[in-house]
Specification:
Chain A is mostly helical. Chain A has nine helices and no strands. Chains A, B: Keywords: Signal.
Protein backbone atom coordinates (compact mmCIF):
# COMPACT_ATOMS: atom_id res chain seq x y z
CA UNK A 1 0.00 0.00 0.00
CA UNK A 2 1.10 3.56 -0.69
CA UNK A 3 -0.09 5.04 2.65
CA UNK A 4 2.52 4.74 5.47
CA UNK A 5 1.24 2.73 8.53
CA UNK A 6 1.50 5.67 11.02
CA UNK A 7 -0.58 7.96 8.82
CA UNK A 8 -3.19 5.23 8.37
CA UNK A 9 -3.45 4.71 12.15
CA UNK A 10 -3.83 8.46 12.71
CA UNK A 11 -6.52 8.61 10.04
CA UNK A 12 -8.49 5.80 11.68
CA UNK A 13 -8.17 7.51 15.09
CA UNK A 14 -9.42 10.77 13.60
CA UNK A 15 -12.45 9.06 12.07
CA UNK A 16 -13.21 7.27 15.36
CA UNK A 17 -12.94 10.55 17.34
CA UNK A 18 -15.24 12.31 14.90
CA UNK A 19 -17.78 9.48 15.02
CA UNK A 20 -17.89 9.28 18.84
CA UNK A 21 -17.48 12.80 20.27
CA UNK A 22 -17.15 12.75 24.09
CA UNK A 23 -20.26 14.15 25.71
CA UNK A 24 -19.78 17.12 28.03
CA UNK A 25 -20.94 16.30 31.60
CA UNK A 26 -23.08 19.44 31.81
CA UNK A 27 -24.80 18.62 28.55
CA UNK A 28 -25.94 15.24 29.90
CA UNK A 29 -29.64 14.81 29.20
CA UNK A 30 -31.80 12.62 31.42
CA UNK A 31 -32.69 10.44 28.46
CA UNK A 32 -29.20 10.03 26.99
CA UNK A 33 -26.67 8.51 29.43
CA UNK A 34 -23.04 9.11 28.46
CA UNK A 35 -20.98 6.33 26.96
CA UNK A 36 -18.83 6.29 30.13
CA UNK A 37 -21.84 5.24 32.19
CA UNK A 38 -22.48 2.03 30.26
CA UNK A 39 -18.76 1.28 30.23
CA UNK A 40 -18.42 1.87 33.99
CA UNK A 41 -21.49 -0.12 35.01
CA UNK A 42 -19.43 -3.25 35.60
CA UNK A 43 -20.75 -3.90 39.15
CA UNK A 44 -24.08 -3.46 40.93
CA UNK A 45 -22.58 -0.43 42.75
CA UNK A 46 -21.54 1.13 39.43
CA UNK A 47 -24.98 0.48 37.96
CA UNK A 48 -26.62 2.09 41.02
CA UNK A 49 -24.35 5.14 40.68
CA UNK A 50 -25.24 5.47 36.99
CA UNK A 51 -28.95 5.33 37.85
CA UNK A 52 -28.42 7.92 40.62
CA UNK A 53 -26.69 10.27 38.16
CA UNK A 54 -29.74 10.07 35.90
CA UNK A 55 -32.12 10.64 38.80
CA UNK A 56 -30.32 13.81 39.93
CA UNK A 57 -29.88 15.06 36.36
CA UNK A 58 -26.14 15.58 36.70
CA UNK A 59 -23.35 13.66 34.99
CA UNK A 60 -19.99 13.66 36.78
CA UNK A 61 -16.72 14.60 35.05
CA UNK A 62 -14.95 12.83 37.95
CA UNK A 63 -16.99 9.71 38.74
CA UNK A 64 -14.64 9.10 41.68
CA UNK A 65 -16.36 11.94 43.56
CA UNK A 66 -19.75 10.26 43.09
CA UNK A 67 -18.32 6.95 44.39
CA UNK A 68 -16.89 8.73 47.45
CA UNK A 69 -20.19 10.49 48.18
CA UNK A 70 -21.95 7.11 48.37
CA UNK A 71 -19.30 5.62 50.67
CA UNK A 72 -19.77 5.86 54.47
CA UNK A 73 -16.83 6.36 56.84
CA UNK A 74 -17.48 2.88 58.30
CA UNK A 75 -16.75 1.33 54.91
CA UNK A 76 -13.59 3.18 53.84
CA UNK A 77 -11.24 5.91 54.93
CA UNK A 78 -11.92 7.35 51.45
CA UNK A 79 -15.48 8.45 52.11
CA UNK A 80 -17.92 11.33 51.68
CA UNK A 81 -17.42 13.14 55.03
CA UNK A 82 -15.38 16.06 53.67
CA UNK A 83 -17.74 16.41 50.70
CA UNK A 84 -20.68 16.51 53.15
CA UNK A 85 -19.20 19.59 54.88
CA UNK A 86 -19.17 21.35 51.51
CA UNK A 87 -22.60 20.00 50.57
CA UNK A 88 -24.19 21.29 53.77
CA UNK A 89 -22.83 24.80 53.15
CA UNK A 90 -24.08 24.74 49.54
CA UNK A 91 -27.52 23.50 50.62
CA UNK A 92 -27.71 26.22 53.28
CA UNK A 93 -26.82 29.01 50.86
CA UNK A 94 -29.32 27.70 48.29
CA UNK A 95 -32.03 27.52 50.96
CA UNK A 96 -31.31 30.98 52.41
CA UNK A 97 -31.24 32.43 48.89
CA UNK A 98 -34.63 30.91 48.10
CA UNK A 99 -36.25 32.32 51.26
CA UNK A 100 -34.96 35.83 50.54
CA UNK A 101 -35.72 35.63 46.81
CA UNK A 102 -39.36 34.86 47.70
CA UNK A 103 -39.50 37.72 50.25
CA UNK A 104 -36.72 40.31 50.31
CA UNK A 105 -38.08 41.68 53.58
CA UNK A 106 -37.96 38.32 55.38
CA UNK A 107 -36.64 38.62 58.96
CA UNK A 108 -33.28 37.07 59.87
CA UNK A 109 -35.11 34.53 62.05
CA UNK A 110 -37.28 33.50 59.08
CA UNK A 111 -34.20 33.04 56.88
CA UNK A 112 -32.50 30.92 59.57
CA UNK A 113 -35.64 28.85 60.10
CA UNK A 114 -36.23 28.37 56.37
CA UNK A 115 -32.62 27.29 55.92
CA UNK A 116 -32.88 24.83 58.83
CA UNK A 117 -36.16 23.42 57.50
CA UNK A 118 -34.82 22.82 53.98
CA UNK A 119 -31.19 21.89 54.69
CA UNK A 120 -31.52 20.33 58.17
CA UNK A 121 -31.18 16.61 58.93
CA UNK A 122 -34.89 15.73 58.80
CA UNK A 123 -35.51 17.13 55.29
CA UNK A 124 -32.11 15.91 54.17
CA UNK A 125 -32.70 12.31 55.33
CA UNK A 126 -36.20 12.32 53.77
CA UNK A 127 -34.81 13.48 50.42
CA UNK A 128 -32.05 10.87 50.64
CA UNK A 129 -34.60 8.11 51.35
CA UNK A 130 -36.73 9.12 48.36
CA UNK A 131 -33.81 9.14 45.97
CA UNK A 132 -32.89 5.62 47.11
CA UNK A 133 -29.67 6.29 49.02
CA UNK A 134 -30.19 3.47 51.59
CA UNK A 135 -29.89 0.88 48.82
CA UNK A 136 -26.85 2.57 47.23
CA UNK A 137 -24.59 3.84 50.04
CA UNK A 138 -21.76 1.50 51.04
CA UNK A 139 -21.52 0.89 54.80
CA UNK A 140 -19.67 -1.57 57.03
CA UNK A 141 -21.52 -4.63 58.41
CA UNK A 142 -22.51 -3.09 61.75
CA UNK A 143 -23.84 0.16 60.27
CA UNK A 144 -27.47 0.64 59.19
CA UNK A 145 -27.59 2.15 55.68
CA UNK A 146 -31.07 3.54 56.32
CA UNK A 147 -30.15 5.44 59.54
CA UNK A 148 -30.93 9.16 59.18
CA UNK A 149 -27.34 10.39 59.81
CA UNK A 150 -25.99 7.95 57.20
CA UNK A 151 -28.62 8.84 54.57
CA UNK A 152 -28.36 12.58 55.23
CA UNK A 153 -24.55 12.49 55.24
CA UNK A 154 -24.55 10.71 51.88
CA UNK A 155 -27.05 13.18 50.39
CA UNK A 156 -24.97 16.15 51.56
CA UNK A 157 -21.83 14.46 50.22
CA UNK A 158 -23.60 14.03 46.88
CA UNK A 159 -24.44 17.76 46.79
CA UNK A 160 -20.85 18.61 47.76
CA UNK A 161 -19.51 16.24 45.11
CA UNK A 162 -21.49 18.14 42.46
CA UNK A 163 -20.06 21.47 43.72
CA UNK A 164 -16.49 20.17 43.59
CA UNK A 165 -16.97 18.38 40.26
CA UNK A 166 -18.50 21.49 38.69
CA UNK A 167 -16.47 24.11 40.56
CA UNK A 168 -19.61 26.04 41.52
CA UNK A 169 -21.91 26.24 44.52
CA UNK A 170 -24.85 27.05 42.23
CA UNK A 171 -24.66 23.73 40.37
CA UNK A 172 -24.80 22.01 43.78
CA UNK A 173 -27.77 24.18 44.77
CA UNK A 174 -29.62 23.13 41.61
CA UNK A 175 -29.14 19.43 42.38
CA UNK A 176 -30.13 20.07 46.01
CA UNK A 177 -33.45 21.57 44.91
CA UNK A 178 -34.07 18.81 42.38
CA UNK A 179 -33.70 16.22 45.17
CA UNK A 180 -35.77 18.31 47.56
CA UNK A 181 -38.61 18.89 45.08
CA UNK A 182 -38.51 15.22 44.03
CA UNK A 183 -39.00 14.23 47.68
CA UNK A 184 -41.79 16.80 48.11
CA UNK A 185 -43.58 15.61 44.96
CA UNK A 186 -43.37 11.95 46.04
CA UNK A 187 -44.66 12.83 49.53
CA UNK A 188 -47.61 14.62 47.93
CA UNK A 189 -48.34 11.61 45.68
CA UNK A 190 -48.11 9.23 48.64
CA UNK A 191 -50.56 11.38 50.62
CA UNK A 192 -53.20 11.25 47.86
CA UNK B 1 -43.36 70.88 9.31
CA UNK B 2 -44.38 67.65 7.65
CA UNK B 3 -43.38 65.35 10.56
CA UNK B 4 -46.22 64.86 13.10
CA UNK B 5 -45.29 65.94 16.69
CA UNK B 6 -45.58 62.40 18.22
CA UNK B 7 -43.18 60.92 15.67
CA UNK B 8 -40.71 63.76 16.32
CA UNK B 9 -40.83 63.11 20.08
CA UNK B 10 -40.30 59.39 19.56
CA UNK B 11 -37.36 60.13 17.26
CA UNK B 12 -35.73 62.38 19.87
CA UNK B 13 -36.28 59.70 22.56
CA UNK B 14 -34.72 57.09 20.30
CA UNK B 15 -31.65 59.26 19.71
CA UNK B 16 -31.29 59.96 23.46
CA UNK B 17 -31.60 56.25 24.31
CA UNK B 18 -28.99 55.35 21.69
CA UNK B 19 -26.63 58.05 22.95
CA UNK B 20 -26.86 57.04 26.65
CA UNK B 21 -27.27 53.26 26.84
CA UNK B 22 -27.90 52.06 30.43
CA UNK B 23 -24.95 50.02 31.69
CA UNK B 24 -25.68 46.48 32.81
CA UNK B 25 -24.80 45.97 36.50
CA UNK B 26 -22.68 42.90 35.75
CA UNK B 27 -20.73 44.75 33.09
CA UNK B 28 -19.67 47.45 35.58
CA UNK B 29 -15.96 48.04 35.21
CA UNK B 30 -13.89 49.30 38.12
CA UNK B 31 -12.85 52.34 36.10
CA UNK B 32 -16.26 53.26 34.68
CA UNK B 33 -18.93 53.94 37.34
CA UNK B 34 -22.49 53.67 36.01
CA UNK B 35 -24.57 56.77 35.38
CA UNK B 36 -26.86 55.74 38.28
CA UNK B 37 -23.96 56.07 40.73
CA UNK B 38 -23.31 59.75 40.03
CA UNK B 39 -27.05 60.42 40.08
CA UNK B 40 -27.52 58.60 43.41
CA UNK B 41 -24.50 60.15 45.18
CA UNK B 42 -26.65 62.89 46.68
CA UNK B 43 -25.48 62.30 50.31
CA UNK B 44 -22.21 61.26 51.97
CA UNK B 45 -23.75 57.80 52.63
CA UNK B 46 -24.66 57.43 48.93
CA UNK B 47 -21.16 58.52 47.91
CA UNK B 48 -19.62 55.97 50.33
CA UNK B 49 -21.86 53.22 48.91
CA UNK B 50 -20.83 54.13 45.36
CA UNK B 51 -17.16 53.96 46.38
CA UNK B 52 -17.77 50.59 48.08
CA UNK B 53 -19.39 49.21 44.92
CA UNK B 54 -16.26 50.13 42.98
CA UNK B 55 -13.98 48.61 45.62
CA UNK B 56 -15.79 45.25 45.57
CA UNK B 57 -16.08 45.27 41.77
CA UNK B 58 -19.83 44.71 41.76
CA UNK B 59 -22.57 47.11 40.69
CA UNK B 60 -26.00 46.51 42.23
CA UNK B 61 -29.19 46.24 40.15
CA UNK B 62 -31.09 46.93 43.39
CA UNK B 63 -29.09 49.61 45.27
CA UNK B 64 -31.57 49.24 48.15
CA UNK B 65 -29.92 45.92 49.03
CA UNK B 66 -26.52 47.63 49.29
CA UNK B 67 -28.02 50.33 51.57
CA UNK B 68 -29.56 47.65 53.79
CA UNK B 69 -26.29 45.72 54.04
CA UNK B 70 -24.56 48.83 55.40
CA UNK B 71 -27.32 49.49 57.96
CA UNK B 72 -27.00 48.02 61.47
CA UNK B 73 -30.02 46.77 63.43
CA UNK B 74 -29.46 49.56 66.01
CA UNK B 75 -30.07 52.14 63.26
CA UNK B 76 -33.16 50.79 61.52
CA UNK B 77 -35.54 47.87 61.54
CA UNK B 78 -34.71 47.66 57.82
CA UNK B 79 -31.16 46.37 58.22
CA UNK B 80 -28.69 43.77 56.97
CA UNK B 81 -29.31 40.97 59.50
CA UNK B 82 -31.28 38.67 57.18
CA UNK B 83 -28.80 39.32 54.37
CA UNK B 84 -25.95 38.38 56.76
CA UNK B 85 -27.48 34.92 57.32
CA UNK B 86 -27.38 34.37 53.56
CA UNK B 87 -23.90 35.93 53.25
CA UNK B 88 -22.42 33.64 55.91
CA UNK B 89 -23.76 30.55 54.11
CA UNK B 90 -22.36 31.78 50.76
CA UNK B 91 -18.97 32.57 52.33
CA UNK B 92 -18.87 29.12 53.94
CA UNK B 93 -19.66 27.30 50.70
CA UNK B 94 -17.05 29.37 48.82
CA UNK B 95 -14.45 28.64 51.51
CA UNK B 96 -15.21 24.90 51.71
CA UNK B 97 -15.13 24.69 47.91
CA UNK B 98 -11.71 26.35 47.79
CA UNK B 99 -10.23 23.97 50.39
CA UNK B 100 -11.45 20.91 48.49
CA UNK B 101 -10.56 22.33 45.08
CA UNK B 102 -6.97 22.74 46.33
CA UNK B 103 -6.90 19.20 47.78
CA UNK B 104 -9.65 16.75 46.86
CA UNK B 105 -8.40 14.36 49.54
CA UNK B 106 -8.62 16.95 52.36
CA UNK B 107 -10.10 15.49 55.57
CA UNK B 108 -13.50 16.67 56.81
CA UNK B 109 -11.77 18.34 59.78
CA UNK B 110 -9.49 20.27 57.40
CA UNK B 111 -12.48 21.45 55.36
CA UNK B 112 -14.30 22.57 58.52
CA UNK B 113 -11.20 24.34 59.84
CA UNK B 114 -10.47 26.02 56.48
CA UNK B 115 -14.07 27.20 56.28
CA UNK B 116 -13.93 28.56 59.83
CA UNK B 117 -10.61 30.31 59.18
CA UNK B 118 -11.82 32.06 56.00
CA UNK B 119 -15.47 32.72 56.84
CA UNK B 120 -15.29 33.04 60.64
CA UNK B 121 -15.68 36.28 62.59
CA UNK B 122 -11.99 37.16 62.91
CA UNK B 123 -11.22 37.00 59.16
CA UNK B 124 -14.59 38.53 58.36
CA UNK B 125 -14.07 41.54 60.67
CA UNK B 126 -10.50 42.03 59.35
CA UNK B 127 -11.75 42.06 55.74
CA UNK B 128 -14.53 44.47 56.69
CA UNK B 129 -12.04 46.82 58.39
CA UNK B 130 -9.78 46.84 55.31
CA UNK B 131 -12.61 47.61 52.93
CA UNK B 132 -13.60 50.58 55.13
CA UNK B 133 -16.87 49.33 56.60
CA UNK B 134 -16.50 51.16 59.98
CA UNK B 135 -16.70 54.52 58.20
CA UNK B 136 -19.66 53.46 56.02
CA UNK B 137 -22.01 51.33 58.15
CA UNK B 138 -24.89 53.23 59.77
CA UNK B 139 -25.30 52.57 63.51
CA UNK B 140 -27.27 54.19 66.36
CA UNK B 141 -25.48 56.59 68.73
CA UNK B 142 -24.61 54.05 71.42
CA UNK B 143 -23.20 51.45 69.00
CA UNK B 144 -19.54 51.32 67.97
CA UNK B 145 -19.25 51.06 64.17
CA UNK B 146 -15.79 49.49 64.45
CA UNK B 147 -16.83 46.65 66.83
CA UNK B 148 -16.01 43.25 65.29
CA UNK B 149 -19.60 41.90 65.34
CA UNK B 150 -20.87 45.08 63.61
CA UNK B 151 -18.13 45.09 60.94
CA UNK B 152 -18.39 41.34 60.31
CA UNK B 153 -22.19 41.47 60.21
CA UNK B 154 -22.08 44.25 57.62
CA UNK B 155 -19.51 42.40 55.52
CA UNK B 156 -21.61 39.22 55.55
CA UNK B 157 -24.70 41.28 54.71
CA UNK B 158 -22.81 42.77 51.76
CA UNK B 159 -21.93 39.28 50.49
CA UNK B 160 -25.56 38.19 50.99
CA UNK B 161 -26.80 41.32 49.21
CA UNK B 162 -24.71 40.38 46.16
CA UNK B 163 -26.16 36.83 46.19
CA UNK B 164 -29.74 38.12 46.34
CA UNK B 165 -29.13 40.93 43.83
CA UNK B 166 -27.51 38.48 41.38
CA UNK B 167 -29.60 35.42 42.19
CA UNK B 168 -26.50 33.25 42.59
CA UNK B 169 -24.32 32.05 45.45
CA UNK B 170 -21.28 32.02 43.15
CA UNK B 171 -21.42 35.79 42.49
CA UNK B 172 -21.43 36.27 46.27
CA UNK B 173 -18.48 33.89 46.59
CA UNK B 174 -16.51 35.91 44.04
CA UNK B 175 -17.05 39.15 45.97
CA UNK B 176 -16.22 37.33 49.21
CA UNK B 177 -12.83 36.24 47.81
CA UNK B 178 -12.13 39.68 46.37
CA UNK B 179 -12.64 41.22 49.84
CA UNK B 180 -10.65 38.43 51.47
CA UNK B 181 -7.72 38.70 49.05
CA UNK B 182 -7.81 42.51 49.28
CA UNK B 183 -7.46 42.24 53.07
CA UNK B 184 -4.68 39.66 52.74
CA UNK B 185 -2.77 41.79 50.22
CA UNK B 186 -3.03 44.88 52.43
CA UNK B 187 -1.88 42.90 55.48
CA UNK B 188 1.14 41.70 53.51
CA UNK B 189 1.95 45.27 52.40
CA UNK B 190 1.58 46.55 55.97
CA UNK B 191 3.95 43.82 57.23
CA UNK B 192 6.72 44.81 54.78
Amino acid sequence: MATPPLAAVLLVLLVVCAAFPSSHPLALGLESPPAAEAAAASSPFDAALAALEKRIGYGFRSPGLLRRSMTHASYSRENGRALAVLGLACAQSAAALRVLAADRDAAASAVSRGTRDAAGEAACAAAGQRVGIPSIVRVAGGTKASAAPVVCGALRALVGAVALDNGTADAAGEVFWRLHDLAAAESATAAM
